[in-house]
């Protein structure tokens, strides 16, 4: 999969992950897109290491893996920056 495909997949995964993750995220749109791209790469790497197969195309499996990685990346980002939304 080419770099442009990873970027596009990361943008889609970042948007889905932001919609799935509860609460407000204090970062802006560009940071969320960047975290989505990093999450897509992270999700693909974890899936490959666990033996779930390679992420090698723009299909439902790839979007699910990339979205999982993006959610994980957003959770890590929130933990590292110390920003948590505590709505009642």
TrEMBL record:
This is GlsB/YeaQ/YmgE family stress response membrane protein. Keywords: Cell membrane, Membrane, Transmembrane, Transmembrane helix. GO terms for cellular component: plasma membrane. It comes from the Bacteria. It comes from Paraflavisolibacter caeni. Belongs to the UPF0410 family. The keyword Cell membrane applies. The chain crosses the membrane at residues 33-53, 60-80. It is found in: Cell membrane. The keyword rRNA-binding does not apply. PANTHER family: UPF0410 PROTEIN YMGE. It is a multi-pass membrane protein. InterPro entries: Transgly_assoc (IPR007341).
